[in-house]
Amino acid sequence: MSKPVLYLDGYSLTPKELFGLQSGNVDIALTPEAEERIKDGREVVDKIVESQEVVYGINTGFGLFSNVTVSPDKLGELQVNLIRSHSSGVGEPLSPQRTRMLLALRINVLAKGHSGIGLVNVLKMIKAFNAGCMPMVPCKGTVGASGDLAPLSHLALGLMGEGKMFDPETGELQEAADVLKKHNLEPIILGAKEGLAMINGTQLIAALGSEAVSRSFNVARCADVATAFSLEVLCGTVRAYHPLIHKVRPHVGQQVVATRIRTLLQPDSPSGLFQSHQYIGKVQDAYSLRCAPQVHGICNDTIEFVNKLLTTELNSATDNPMVFTAEQVKNEVPFGFDIQAADPSKDSDKFSSEVAKQFEGAGDNIEDITDLEAAKKEIAALRATVAEQNKPKKWGFFKKTSDLQLQSDHGVIMSGGNFHGEYPAKALDYLAIGVHELSAISERRIERLVNPSLSGLPAFLVQDGGFNSGFMIAHCTAAALVSENKVLTHPASVDSISTSAAKEDHVSMGGFAARKALEVVDHVEIVIAIEVLCACQAMEFHRPLKTTDALEAVHKLVRSEVEAWDGDREMWKDINAVKAMIYDGRLWSTVEPFLLRSPS
């Protein structure tokens, strides 16, 4: 059975779509327009190679060696050397699922046509992706500028048939050449600039970031469900969720969360459980219950912000140098440069002006020409001006910074800094800080659920306390992860370290920011899973009373895999089962039909 196909065009990929490619259930392909852009960009590079112009990244060394020129017969070998030497990553390899994201994202960037790679190699990359043949990519070694060089080099190395590659049939790492041959795939063969085109960019940061933000959307919604359930079994009230309160502080996320929790707790009328106590004798709930819209709300708004920024990053050209066709720069004048297209009218005006200056004041009377030598000099000057006018037209160029090269009929190669990962690095540090707070406030609700002096329920939500420990250490696990998150949320991007002999003297540390963000999100999923488990167990002590239909559906889902806690057993299995329900979307999809009135 053929798989659905996601078409990559370099302009429209979303973090959710990229994260969805982890499954291996979707193939990828280029749009026709993307194929044409790739061919146009490659033509610019080929013409420069033919002209033997010296251009960074095409026929020079890299970094500090950018002043070293390489002979035409070694340009392919230059690119291969680049990949081999830059394959310097360490640490555990990315999973095949995450490598799928990395490869697909690099292909999407190449689809913009500003990298200079040939279409043949891009199509080979797509075939490897669709066959599930993923190179071994160590997770550590990038400083996030000049792009994610080490991990992307390992990605390219495997596609070249060197290094290691996951065999899609066994899931084991084998020699890349053997895996490619086994699956009838041809290794990529690098020409001028194609090695650099494979590795210059922020794709590791953005790929891992796309997973982090996609999972954050899901866990944030599930945190609202957990809050509603905890509020219900702790016999709280929804008064603090009244629309009038949130209308006068109209943050988008705050209003979404308040509406969502209010709808879960009182869709039409109070639940049987609430009617049994009606909040009599109480004044107001603790902050962890009452202020969820304000705390969860900013987390939701943070996730939306990061998702928008990453969407831009996924569809950005992040190479250096960058390739532009003559057509693309025809009407552009970049800041700091005067790039003039060959304009006959302007050239004619310039020619007339220069001639006029040479003969200014001479008039049309030739009787005054008495000095033959002076006349010869004037004629020679006129001939030189005419000859200059008749030369082949090139783009005008006034260089104000280094490393920009221009070709007349083909296009422009420009050096810039789009590879710098500061944008996604800062965003993912922000994401980690925002999402962490969901676990911080959840841990406080877990404390209220297991503490009999706060809940009015049996200690640690278990009968025969002392003989049974119940959820005692589950709360400790939540507390431990929340404390770890406090360290992990220290921003990686506030750090920088000079590399490449001070040529690359400021870096983003975005790779670490992305890995930390993923670890934080994973911890948050576990903490929310523990809260859901606690709320479901607390509900057992309120039976035969019923909660709302939505929360009863959550209880039923959890009980389909996790039995009520009648006596001590291995807790980790239960935690992992509910975490899986959060991760794969089952918990959210269970309550979503009940939230039709929610703006989310």
Report on this model:
This protein has 600 residues and is mainly alpha-helical. Helices cover 54% and strands 6% of the residues. The strands form 4 sheets. It has a 3-stranded antiparallel β-sheet with strand order 4-6-7. Helix 9 (203-233) packs parallel to helix 21 (510-540), helix 11 crosses helix 14 and helix 14 (292-314) packs antiparallel against helix 18. The longest helix has 31 residues, at 203-233. The two termini are 35 Å apart. Mean pLDDT is 90; it is low at 335-346 and 393-408.
Rg over C-alpha atoms, rounded to the nearest angstrom? 32 Å
Approximate shape: elongated
What percent of residues adopt helix (DSSP H or I)? Answer: 40-55%
Overall pLDDT level:
90
What structural class do you assign from the helix and strand content?
A: mainly alpha
- Straight-line distance between termini: 35 Å
Low-confidence stretches: 335-346, 393-408
Output the strand order for the largest sheet. Answer: 4-6-7
How much of the polypeptide forms β-strand, as a percent range? 5-15%
Strands, count: 10
User: Main beta sheet: strand number and arrangement?
Assistant: 3 strands, antiparallel
Query: How many individual helices?
Result: 24
Family: Belongs to the PAL/histidase family.
Organism: Triparma retinervis
GO molecular function, one term: ammonia-lyase activity
Protein name: Histidine ammonia-lyase
